[in-house]
Each structure stands twice: as structure tokens, then as C-alpha cells.
Design brief:
Radius of gyration: 17 Å
Structural class: alpha+beta
Largest sheet: 5 strands, mixed
Distance between the termini: 50 Å
Strand order of the largest sheet: 2-1-5-3-4
Order of helices and strands: EEHEEEHHHH
Strand content: 5-15%
Helix content: 25-40%
Number of strands: 5
Length: 164
Amino acid sequence: MEVQFTLNGKKVSTEIAADTVLLNLLRDLGCKSVKCGCETTNCGLCTVWIDGKSRLSCSVLAASIDGHEVTTLEGVEKEAAEFGSFLAQEGAEQCGFCSQGFIMNVLAMFRELKNPSIEEIKEYLAGNLCRCTGYMGQLRAIQKYMEVRNTAVNITVKKMGGEE
């Protein structure tokens, strides 16, 4: 069967088997940031955005994305690198295996929630497992990134003559 969708801003048309899982299709298309860690929707390593919402690609049939927009880490490299530097500064990127899915979920959270509390952050990211960091470094990185990001937004608003 043929599936047509937008992948990281580019139109894609490809043949798939009816039982193809999105994770495998994306890797076949060169998106190596999408990883398989558990195949049970428990680790978050395969996180992508479908129409802007975080989804676990190991639990999505590729046929269901026909006509939709899929974004992987390769599609948000600049944003991901910026946040990744905050992770590195906090020592929260130790082995890096879980980083791609974690970063995709953090960036989605920033798009969805305005100034989330620590509890909201923890709840939003509950499905991302990391065996190296203990999560405190990740939380510090998120808080510092939010501070910098919110400051930049406020400066832009002021320059445009708007209010905070």
C-alpha cells in the first residue's frame, strides 16, 4: 500500500506493508534519531510529532499517517541543539541514548504548556525513561532553558511594542 505524508517539511510517498510500524518506516527513510528501546510504549525513545503532538512511533501503524505531518528530531535540529546544550551543561546527557525522544517531548511540552510547574513537567515527561541521569539534571536543564526562552520571548514582545 502507498502512504503519502509530510516528513520534516518534505512530501514523502512510499510503499509499505499493511503491518509496518511508523518507527521502522522512519528509520528506513533515514531518520536515525527515532530509536527502539522497548517496543512496549514504555521508554519514549521513539517519540515523534504527528501533526505537532507527541506520539510513540512504535505504537503507530505507518498506514495511519497518510496525509499527516510527521516531525522527527532531524526536523527540529536547531531547537534540539539549543536545548541539548542545556542538557550537556547540567550533565544530563550522559550516554545520550534516550536524549532524542526526551528532547522531542520537551520541545512539544514547550509548545503546548506556558510556564509549566515542576509537577507539570514531571507529569508531561513521565513516559521518558533514562537510566543514567536520575532526572534532576534534566529538570535543571529544563528550568534553565525555560528561563532563557521566556526572557527571549519577553524581549521580542517588548521590541515589537507589545506587553509582556
